Amino acid sequence: MTAASDRQPTVRLPKQASPTHDDVGVPPAQPPTLPPAQPPTPPPSRRRRRVLIAGLTVVALVAAAGGTARWALAGDVPRGVTVLGVDLGGLARSEAAAALRAHLAADPRTTAAVQVRVEDRGATLNPADIGLVVDVDATVDAAAAGRPSLFSDRAVAPVIAVDTDLLDAALRKAVGKVGTAMRAPAVTFTGLTPKAVHPRPGRGLDPQRTAEAVKAGWLSGEPVTVPLVELQPSTTAEQVDQLVETVARPAVAAPVTVTSERGTLTIPPAAIAKSLVLTGDRAGLIEPRIDPKKLRAAVAPALAKIEVPAEDASFTFAGGRPKIVAGAEGRGIDLAALAPRLLTAATSADARTVEATLTTAPPATSVADLERLGVKEKVSTFTTRFTGGLSSSRSQNIVTAAKQVRGALVLPGRTFSLNGHTGERGYAQGYKDAPVIVGGHLQPGVGGGVSQFTTTLFNASYYAGLQDVEHKPHSYYFDRYPAVIESTIFWPDLDFKFKNDTPYGVLIDTAWTSKSITVSMWSTKVWDKVTTEWSARRNITSPPTITKPDGPDCIATSGLIGFTQDAWRLFHKDGKVAKREKFTWKYDPEPRFICAEAAAD
User: Fold this and answer.
1) Where are the alpha helices (DSSP H) in 188-334?
2) Is 473 domain-assigned?
3) pLDDT class for 442, splitting at 50, 70, 90?
4) DSSP strand pairing (154-155 vs 81-83)
5) How many structural domains is the chain composed of?
6) Where does the chain cross the membrane (predicted)?
7) Which of 72, 107, 130, 445 holds its CA 20 to 30 A away from the CA of 596?
8) 363 and 389 share one domain
9) Whole-structure pTM value
């Protein structure tokens, strides 16, 4: 084997000349620099082994780096991310959401009442009442954003949501009036003269700022302070003045004509002034508009000549049974759609004319609506007898009331009021003078006798099993009525009311003869039957005798005993009494009134 030194290249150096006199002091020439010696070349087998080891090392490093990357990038949420102390790193979105929800369910702060302070006032708000929650999905989205970190943690704040309107309403209700009210800008009318109301800034709650404060401080465990902010009206004083000149004055300068296929409607300036709204909203912004409801009220008589009102389906009686009569569509002007164009016409310099389109309006109550009420059978009926013939004023008053009530429909859950249904029962309504009890004395009065109809109606509702709401028996007992379960009435102080506490409609029918009045109830039976049991009379008292001056106001009577008695209403179902209801009343003795002329002096 050749030695390593034998493989080095041979360098031949030039022969140095002997120094001469001229060369004295001149340094001798430096020998040339030799190239560095190369390490010996290893044998082929060793060289292959080194290459293999180096390659394996590189592969191992790459594999390790790849594994670390896969670990760091595993899941949707990067490693090292926490929310409210919960480690969500490496989890899929669904896993992270489930873990966060479980933590929130166990965190008492999420359900505890929120303490809020506004100036010197405090309020306690329930998170559920104001929609205050941690938005889990949005929080997980925030946690999933960003790059993973192998060496540090990243805390992500929870995303808080709140219903701004509910929060604002709840806080205002809890703390009452705070700050200084803003004076809203407006333009008002005195007759046809517009007047500017200039705005004035205030200081109070701003819903958005309130929401931001509550969301930021909710989970801190400390009371949340909500600031008051300056409330600047969106409409300035200058803009209010401009609205007076560009909108208010032109709008009432002359009538506006509305044309339609059924005729022409003239809207006078006074109607425009009543329906033109120029008032700032909560933010103090004025958006001029015509209020359709106010406009309809202002021009109702003229509209009635153009529009055809819809007719609801209704009940009638044929052959002694209820029958449904179909309704009819109506036609009218859609004032809500007309209002914007009407405002444009009223404030423009062009012709003050606008065209309206008539629209059809279906009945509010259809045949199907009435069919669903289950008015199919007579569930009760009750009759009382007149004390005189049908020609008497008292009997005529009873029939007049019966005519007004016939066909009345009481929907499920509604309460029927006799005073409310008939209104005042006076001469203008066809009622006449007949005996009434006033202050314990019988005397003529308009509408006398209607108490008999009231008693008949009360008993019909009583035996139909309907809920008694208000009734009052007479002060004296009259044997034409059942004791205890009878009722008087007097406008407007005494009323009779019952509630339809069934799931079906109740239709009232009335009928009369020359001797009696009958009231029947039509519906679907809830009870098999309703009956009454009476106790014996007790505490019986005799009537006193009273002499009154003879005259038109004196009505002679024979007197009636007084007593106390109970009556039980029994509700029968499936062959047994399912419910009992007790009524008790104490009747005063009716005096024996004698009408006599005053003795001469």
Assistant:
1) 207-217, 237-243, 249-251, 269-275, 292-298, 300-304
2) yes
3) low
4) parallel
5) 3
6) 51-73
7) 445
8) no
9) 0.59
SS3 108: helix
Rounded Cα gap, residues 365 and 356, in angstroms: 26
Tokens of 409: 């429909």
Q: Is the peptide bond before 492 cis (omega within 30 degrees of 0)?
A: yes
SS (H, E, C) 373-424: CCCCEEEEEEEEECCCCCCCHHHHHHHHHHHHHCCCEECCCCEEEHHHHHCC
Sign of torsion over alpha carbons 232, 234, 238, 240: negative
DSSP 427: G
Same domain for 270 and 299, yes or no, is: yes
Cβ distance 555 to 594 under 8 Å? Answer: no
Considering the domain architecture, whether residues 311 and 396 belong to the same structural domain is answered as no
State whether 391 and 513 are in the same domain. yes
206 within a domain of the structure (yes/no):
no
Are 361 and 471 part of one and the same domain? Answer: no
Are 351 and 434 in a shared domain? Answer: no
CB 249 within 8 A of CB 192: no
- What span, in angstroms and rounded, lies between the C-alpha atoms of 452 and 457? 9
The span from the CA of 502 to the CA of 412, in Å, is 6
Q: Cβ neighbours of residue 395 under 8 Å, at least 6 residues apart?
A: 386, 388, 389, 449
Phi, psi (rounded to 5 degrees) for 503: -85, 5
Determine the pLDDT at residue 440. 58
Give the domain extent around 543.
Answer: 374-596
Q: Last residue of a domain, which of 175, 207, 227?
A: 175
Read out DSSP for 44-62? HHHHHHHHHHHHHHHHHHH
Interatomic CA distance for residues 367 and 377, integer angstroms: 18
pLDDT, tens digit, 9 for 90 and up, residues 95-141:
999 999 999 999 898 888 999 999 889 999 999 999 999 999 999 99
Binned at pLDDT 50, 70 and 90, residue 423 comes out as very high
What is the C-alpha to C-alpha distance for residues 211 and 133, in angstroms, rounded to an integer? 12
| Pure H helices in 390-537 | 393-405, 418-422, 450-463
The CATH number of the domain holding residue 344 is 3.10.20
Q: Would residue 222 count as lying in a domain? A: no
